[in-house]
Amino acid sequence: GESVGLHLPTLSVQEGDNSIINCAYSNSASDYFIWYKQESGKGPQFIIDIRSNMDKRQGQRVTVLLNKTVKHLSLQIAATQPGDSAVYFCAENMGSGGYNKLIFGAGTRLAVHP
Amino acid sequence: GAVVSQHPSWVICKSGTSVKIECRSLDFQATTMFWYRQFPKQSLMLMATSNEGSKATYEQGVEKDKFLINHASLTLSTLTVTSAHPEDSSFYICSASPRLAGGLETQYFGPGTRLLVL
Fold it and tell me: What pLDDT band is residue A2 in, cutting at 50, 70 and 90?
């Protein structure tokens, strides 16, 4: 459903540790999911995407896992760095037939400590 | 690749004036462009979807007469906030989807425009 979060949950990690950010999506018919990173005062930056016919996809230092059974998405960041500090949003494609309409989750703030 | 720009990056205006924000896809043609609004510490809320050459589709609760959207070309969409009021102060972000043959299209976001209405 629509995201109206007023308080961003925060994940605090030590530099070098792995981070796992979780997201629950709402529509079992969603067929495409994207993770975005947003730094303060900037627009969201594409990180990685995954289609519903996959359950795992890897990028550079990032992995997205999709569990359609429980409608859960996660973003794993390996060897977290200070530059990874930002707010991370998952987004699900609510469209059908390729129509692209993204609904964003509430977001999670990642704080990386030295 | 897939760079989206917005202009201006920030704007301060008096209540009652109109403000135009431009969104451009710099290195690709965008079949569809989207406009979002984001309040502090909140997520992005989709305002409207615009397809080149046709009328925009507005989300429920978004006044189409107040937020005018024009998508005149495959690389430019504009959002005009008419008769802006302090409650319209927000971070406005556009995104664009490249023109691909079939399949699902990733949205690439602009840097956002911060609007402050006094």
Answer: very low
